[in-house]
Amino acid sequence: MNYILHLGTFFGIYAILGISLNLLVGGTGLIWIAHAAIFGLGAYVLALLMTKVALNFFLAAFLGMCIAGIVGCIAAWVFARLSGDYYMLASVAFNYIIVSVFINWESLTNGPLGISGISRPSLFGISFAGNESFFALTFLFLGLVYVSARLIMHSSFGRVIKAIREDEEAIRVFGYHTLLYKIMISGIAAAMAALAGALFASYIAFIDPSNFHVMESIFILGIVVVGGFASIRGSLLGALILVLLPEVLRFAGFPQDISAHMQQLVYGIVLILFMLYRPQGLIGEYKF
Amino acid sequence: MEIFAQLVANSVIAGATYTILTLGFNLIYGATRFTNMAYGVVAATGGYAFFFLTRTVGLPMIPSIIAGALFSGVVGVLTDRLIFSPLRKKNVRPSVHVIASLGAFVAIQALLSIFFGAEFWTLLPSGTVRVFDVAGASVTEVQWWIMGIAAAVSGLLFVVLRFTLFGKVVRALSDDEEVGKMLGINTDRTIGIVFFIGSMIAGLGGILVGFDTGIQPTMGLFILIEAAVPSIIGGIGNLAGGVIAAFLFGFVENFGIWFIASQWKAAIAFGLLTLFLIFKPEGIMGKK
Question: Which of residues 171-210 of A touch B (CB under 8 A)?
């Protein structure tokens, strides 16, 4: 039972990541390989606020979302001039720089050793320390993220975002200030990713910079690729498949030290196969 | 003054390595028009092939360097034949190529970890290294090798591109693939050959990086950036600009870590990339 709750909680966290990245990637059509850095930002802000100044989880998570949201907006504004490959390379650079800060700002982040002893949430005397209640909390947040993502994509705001993806020049001619839209969607996606980071940090109680590397960003992009671009439901499916895949491989019985690399190998091959045979993902509406 | 001389020497040596990396990257980019994220890890396979041949098989240095570079060439061609050539025939957007190359990057890195372990290896046998004194800076024998190979490769590539029919075909292809097709050039085959040559150069670069810093499966991403930064600064597709930028990059990086601290080396490289992407995306010598 605990095992299923554990997988369920992880699924919830990664589904939030997938959905938020899909708002950005599926919305704007640009490849963003820095979601793990934003995820990490949320996790680090929460961990620091909870362990150093004993702030309540919910308040700390909210502050993390605000900070990440602002960082997301700034990144979108700075990178707005870039398109295609350059945008993607810049995002890789961005991820690298953020992780460098996690590693090298030792007085604050404790460097490569990371931060431990992050506690589970509690609010008005209700504790979410148990695995069941934490699972429920994660799903509550996932539900909120899912509903807001759908509302965003089906609102007039979402339609403008999709139009930017299809033809930015054309929508600009109609008088839309496209930069503003890109900055806003980026801020929203970053805040959601930071929420996932807060849940992650509180759930496993220990974070270090290696959790938030470029490889992790590629993994999160994999959720979007498998599920389907611009499909919010697809991201749920993608997260489910990519969270369960390692468990399947675990039962295949590879030795412990090999199995992590086997997982990576399978992820890589999955990405290639999807691009070759199903670039729109399992239930995606948009062919990249 | 001695520190200054040493910094200049280190910058030139780094610049020589980056020259090789950037030449291969630029060559492939010119023919395919997308950022091949697997480029760095293909370079790493050359370093590993060299490691295997010298340590396990016991071949001498020079044949191992040649065989290592050839091995990378073969790996590069395989990625083209299995992934990119089929994608070209489907006429998909560049983003699909990029995500597929991310998949290849993840998969090849995983294979390196499975076969050689995730740990770090030095490429050179330990023992006495001959050191030469140049105007107060000490330069090791290996570093002379690095500079010699860089000069030879760039010279050879220049001659091939300038004076052979194949060079003309490649240059026509980088200018305009459609026109190339109309002139009756077998573009798919030519791109395959370009992949082989570019990946061979990459493998050579991977071996040289390995001489300097050792090898690890995760080195690929950083090699990619070390190749992409000078390519972009020099104007992507512009080989001469890339070479100049490679040395510029070497100087900025080495003097940067003297002023700041060596653990920020990666962040300096990525910061420089971001600055150029934002303010001068066409590079110092690029065509608009």
Answer: none
